[in-house]
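Dear H.,

Thanks for agreeing to be a second pair of eyes. The structure we're designing against is below in token form, covering all 242 positions.
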């Protein structure tokens, strides 16, 4: 593996609902489906289709793709492949549960206002422990997600494909970048605070000798070129679908 491309799924209906709830200072995100089943919005589908030229139409294309099992990631990849079947490129597509979004436990579907009102002790714990180590009851910390991503990378980087593609979630993209480039907690938090992972963005890393180099982060030029909306939907620090 010489290059790894990381794609965040297109805008989802969960992203839209979470942003609306945060803006309204509602305590609960109005979403009936479980996180794994949240689908793309109309805008997200348009963004996913705009990925086609970037992922499959250039001189260098991924030979293998690993997808989060969540519907929004699966849809993003499927729509990016519309009309390009048979074109040289992705030969193997694998779904890997280690690429699922961060699990939020008792904070699932709560906005920051809902956490403060219903679980003030968790808001205090998060403030004390920091985002990287705070694990909501029944959920995961960023450190927990990093652990499963280390396992994924051990397997993925041993593959004989030269270029690999991951389609997953904002936290997964951010933590894979941190793991490959060797960011510690301080550097990761500083980087994450000013570099959001945009919907349907492409992040590229390249192996230079024994070191992974970040070539592009959260690139959305393909969206701008095709007139698709550019969205981020970062949510609050610990809640909201990613």
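And this is the sequence the design step returned. I haven't edited it by hand at all.
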């Amino acid at each position: 593996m010489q290059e790894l491309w990381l794609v965040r799924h297109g805008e989802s209906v969960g992203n839209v609902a979470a942003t609306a709830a945060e803006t309204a200072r509602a305590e609960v995100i109005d979403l009936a489906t479980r996180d794994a089943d949240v689908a793309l919005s109309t805008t997200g589908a348009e963004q996913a289709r705009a990925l086609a030229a970037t992922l499959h139409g250039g001189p260098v294309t991924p030979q293998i793709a690993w997808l989060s099992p969540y519907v929004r990631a699966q849809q993003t990849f499927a729509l990016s492949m519309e009309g390009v079947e048979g074109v040289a490129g992705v030969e193997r597509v694998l779904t890997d549960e280690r690429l699922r979004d961060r699990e939020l436990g008792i904070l699932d579907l709560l906005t920051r206002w809902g956490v403060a009102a219903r679980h003030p002790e968790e808001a205090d714990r998060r403030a004390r422990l920091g985002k990287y180590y705070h694990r909501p009851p029944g959920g995961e910390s960023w450190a927990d997600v990093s652990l499963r991503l280390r396992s994924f990378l051990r397997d993925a980087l041993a593959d004989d494909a030269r270029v690999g593609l991951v389609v997953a979630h904002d936290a997964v993209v951010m933590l894979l970048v941190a793991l490959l480039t060797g960011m510690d907690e301080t550097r990761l938090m500083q980087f994450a605070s000013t570099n959001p992972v945009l919907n349907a963005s492409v992040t590229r890393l390249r192996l230079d000798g024994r070191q992974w180099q970040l070539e592009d982060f959260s690139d959305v030029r393909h969206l701008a070129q095709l007139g698709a909306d550019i969205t981020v939907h970062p949510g609050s620090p610990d809640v909201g679908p990613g």
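Two observations from my side: The beta strands are 3-8, 64-67, 92-95, 163-168, 202-208, 211-219. The mean pLDDT is 93.

Warmly,
E.
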